[in-house]
Write a structure and sequence with these properties.
With 323 residues, the chain is α/β, with parallel strands linked by helices. The protein is 38% helix and 15% strand. It has a domain of 225 residues: Alpha-Beta Barrel (TIM Barrel), CATH 3.20.20.100.
């Protein structure tokens, strides 16, 4: 495994981290989830990314991960870097969503119980909440660190102006933002242009999710919709309408490039995100150990020459491709 330093901190993270957004909830196989987690750890992936609402149902990914930790990895806690988040809809009632102090603190407490942990290595504000003053949200994160419930804090999906404001508040309290999490892929380069420089200048590491554009860059949809695919299962995040002619054609052209590099499309897409030196790590989501091992092959060839990068830009230049 390759490790990169996280911003201006002393933390190093694996360039590939395992995300538990999908495939680790109660609707999925616990045995498969356990095998993926243990295989990832055995391959040098020490960072596991959670959120309170991951499942489905919400909370179940944390519970299942906590069970794996307790049964199989308890002796390795100090070798693991575990994150969770709060901010999206989680429980019924007026306090079960948003980024208020009440929600952030209660969410962290609940997440610690589900995962059977004493602390998180990093706890994120999962989203900017326009109905809550940003000072309130950041102060809640600061308090989590001072209470020993998190070692570091992070932000996820914050717009550029609020991102900078969050950094300033955290820095003033001497609890700097360790990680900034943004969606990024060949099909979605908005964060590279709007958020990466701000994070780098503030000394925050950058960790990217959805590097395969919810599967559009996995290659599995290049010839249609497989029966066992996320779209076929009725995902709210990836729907048949997303499989436009422009995106399919672009994915097919990118697949040809990947083959010339002796990589799969998924491997090349992961390498492309990591080719940006500002990126600390990329979060991968897998549904099987076989898929996990295939994704890990990406780190064997992370470099691109100028012509390759230019060709990729040309393939995705059509605004209709952006996802």
């Amino acid at each position: 495994m390759i490790y990169r330093r996280c911003g201006h901190s002393g933390i190093k993270l694996p360039v590939l981290s395992l995300g538990l957004w999908h495939n680790f909830g109660d609707l999925d196989s616990y045995d498969v989830a356990r095998e993926m987690v243990l295989t990832a750890f055995g391959q040098g992936i020490c960072h596991f990314d959670l959120a309170n609402n991951y499942g489905p149902p919400p909370g179940s990914a944390e519970r299942n991960f906590g069970r794996i930790l307790s049964n199989d990895l308890k002796a390795h806690r100090d070798e693991l870097f575990i994150s969770s988040k709060a901010g999206h809809d989680m429980w019924n009632g007026v306090y079960g969503t948003g980024s208020s102090r009440k929600n952030i603190i209660a969410s962290c407490d609940q997440s610690l119980q589900r995962t059977r942990l004493d602390y998180f290595d990093v706890f994120y504000s999962h989203r900017y909440d326009p109905e809550t003053p940003i000072e309130e949200t950041m102060q809640a994160l600061i308090n989590l660190v001072r209470q020993g419930k998190a070692l570091y804090v992070g932000i996820s999906k914050y717009p550029a102006d609020k991102q900078a404001e969050a950094y300033a508040i955290l820095q003033a309290a001497k609890v700097p933002c360790l990680l900034s999490q943004y969606r990024c892929s060949i099909f979605d380069q908005k964060a590279k242009q709007a958020n990466f420089d701000c994070a780098t200048q503030a000394g925050s590491g950058i960790i990217c999710f959805s590097p395969l554009a919810q599967g559009l860059l996995s290659g599995k949809y290049n010839q249609g919709i497989p029966a066992d695919s996320r779209i076929a299962k009725g995902s709210i995040f990836l729907q048949p309408s997303h499989l436009t002619k422009e995106r399919i054609e672009a994915a097919q052209k990118l697949d040809e490039m990947a083959q010339n590099r002796h990589q799969t499309l998924a491997q090349m897409s992961l390498a492309w995100v990591l080719n940006d030196e500002r990126v600390t790590s990329v979060i991968i989501g897998t549904s099987s150990t076989q898929q996990l091992m295939s994704n890990l092959e990406a780190i064997k060839y992370l470099s691109f020459d100028r012509e390759e990068l230019q060709k990729i830009d040309e393939i995705v230049a059509n605004p209709l491709i952006s996802f």
